[in-house]
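Sanity check

After download, print the first record. It should look like this:
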Amino acid sequence: MLLFGVTAGLVSVFELLEFLFTKNIPWLWRIARQVWRKIRWSFGKKADDGEVQRLILNFSGHPVTPAQQQAIEKQMHWTSSSVVDVRLGNVPEDNNFAAAITKAIDRTELSPEEWQTTPFVAVPAGYPAAWSVILASLHGRLGHFPDVARLRPTPPGASEKYEVAEILNLREHRHASRDKR
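Expected structure tokens:
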């Protein structure tokens, strides 16, 4: 009877672990990614040369390729950067549209201080209504418009489908447009 109880207990524990890890892999992956990012940020900053962590916030839903990341770093004159994929998922087309996008931005788990001090470039979402809400939210968190990477299709036969055309400095465009009021 004791052997049966121990065996049943072990089977139950294994089934519970299997359930937790198979049903909650996205949740566990997000936690692991956030923990890894915080560890990397805390140990990755070099105190002697003042190296600052720089981010590429990817709202596009497509991965930022290494070539695109290098092009952004080159155009921004950065030595290194980290890509943060902000997963919007299927945005509801109801009254919770803006709230769902704001929750996705909140999942980046950047502190208010990090929003104010960390240099970053945004890769825009392809859905204009979603990008409008994202841009408004980023402006509210930063106090200014972010820099935006404009992607364009590559010529036929290229290994990449999209390349970084330029980095748009929206703050400069806004200030230049104020003369036309």
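If your output differs, re-run the checksum step. Summary of this record's structure: Strands lie at 55-58, 82-85, 120-123, 147-153, 162-169.
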